Amino acid sequence: MFKKLLAGMLVAAVALTAVPAVSYAATSPSSSVEVEAGKTEEVSQPNGIKPTVTTTAKGNVVVSEIAKTTKTTIVISAAVKVDGVTCVVKRLEGDIFANCTNVKKVSLPATINQIAEKTFSSVQPTATITLASKTAPKINRAAFAGVDTKKMKITTSNMTKKQITVLAKRLKNAGFKGKVNGKTIDQLLKK
């Protein structure tokens, strides 16, 4: 009995080592399939928004522009396909809404972790920005450059009270004067 078991295990081991390794091309940034870093292209999203993205070394993308649209609501997807590979949207960079003259609502995915200089410079001063993330993104001091943000609103639904406080500090450093979840920055920062 022991010899049969040992012989069966030996046959299985030989069979497994004889099978060539197969690599499956999964379409996710965590897979072995990667897109060349620094590649810039306009991609389509299911909602009709066409962002221009640039790939990073880690298989993520930076959104640098939204193609001209008259839509009042802009929803940025959490992931986009570049060369057939799904890449995660991590950062907003530059005046990405410059071609979106009517934008009043912006929804950002939970994957966004950085908002760069002038990102919201072309957004209407009465706009509502919705953040889906659980953690407060880093916000450049000039993210709202040139915009009177007093009537602007930011909403969050997934952040803890601690993260909302972090967000409030980052927004204050960026000169944001509007409300977050219906409260002023000063109300959120009171201890």
Question: How do the helices and strands line up, and which of them pair or pack?
Answer:
Blueprint: H1 2-18, E1 40-42, E2 51-55, E3 60-66, E4 73-75, E5 79-82, E6 85-92, E7 105-108, E8 114-115, E9 128-131, E10 138-139, E11 153-156, H2 161-173, E12 179-180, E13 183-184, H3 185-189
Parallel strand pairs: 3-6, 4-7, 6-8, 7-9, 8-10, 9-11, 11-12
Antiparallel strand pairs: 1-2, 2-3, 5-6, 12-13
Structure description:
- About 20% of the residues lie in helices and about 25% in strands.
- The N terminus is likely disordered.
- The chain starts with a helix and ends with a helix.
- The chain is an alpha/beta fold and about 190 residues long.
- Strands 1, 2, 3, 5, 6, 8 and 10 form a 7-stranded mixed beta sheet that branches.
- The protein has 3 helices and 13 strands.
Taken from the alpha-carbon principal axes, the silhouette is globular
Helix and strand content put the structural class at alpha/beta
| Gap from first CA to last CA | 74 Å
Low-confidence stretches: 1-32
Radius of gyration: 23 Å
User: How can the largest sheet be summarized?
Assistant: 7 strands, mixed
Beta content: 25-35%
| Structure summary, number of beta strands | 13
Which sequence of SSEs, written as H and E, runs from N to C? HEEEEEEEEEEEHEEH
Helix share, percent: 10-25%
SS field, number of helical segments: 3
* Overall pLDDT confidence: 84
